[in-house]
From TrEMBL:
Name of the encoding gene: ndk
Subunit structure: Homotetramer.
Protein name, entry field: Nucleoside diphosphate kinase
Phylogenetic classification of the source organism: Bacteria, Candidatus Moduliflexota, Candidatus Moduliflexia, Candidatus Moduliflexales, Candidatus Moduliflexaceae
Example GO biological process: CTP biosynthetic process
Cofactor(s) this protein requires: Mg(2+)
Pfam families for the chain: NDK
InterPro entries listed in its UniProt record: NDK-like_dom, NDK-like_dom_sf, Nucleoside_diP_kinase, Nucleoside_diP_kinase_AS
E.C. number: 2.7.4.6
A GO cellular component annotation in the UniProt record: cytoplasm
Binding site for ATP: K11, F59, R87, T93, R104, N114
Amino acid sequence: MSVERTLVIIKPDAVSRELIGDILLRFEHAGFHIIAMKMIRIGRQEAEMFYEEHRGKPFFPALTEMLAGEPIIPVVLSCENAIAKARELIGATDPALAAEGTIRHDFALDKSHNSVHGSDSPASAAREIPFFFGEAEICHSREVLR
Ligand code: IDP
Ligand code: MG
């Protein structure tokens, strides 16, 4: 295993319910280092680009509408095995099926409002991190394991 970067997004349903701190705490307590973070809004077209792999699926219009226009928090996290580890901490897509103690089990409302995004593979992380952050916005010095 090696040190990896992954992209997490705190989605609008969690931002609007004041869960930013709770969710970041889960990652910090699990040993992730936050190496980049911002609060932004993106447009519909950007949301469609971000979720390109889901274009054509029945939930695609609602999904991109959910992500667009509202504040979201993209975060780059770093630690050993960060991609799989973050997915484990986040839990299953449908919070009704997510394991106890996972972020989605504890905070998500339903499959359409599941509070957090996490990159699902090294290829996804490599595409998703530059979608939100330039290299200059990433704090490399914090990547070294403490
Ligand atoms: P993931 O976020 O766990 O990786 P994906 O299958 O990549 O799940 O789907 C992306 C997002 O699309 C999910 O997080 C969820 O918000 C939404 N989504 C996925 N499947 C459904 C569905 O069947 N109904 C409604 N929304 C869905
Ligand atoms: Mg996914």
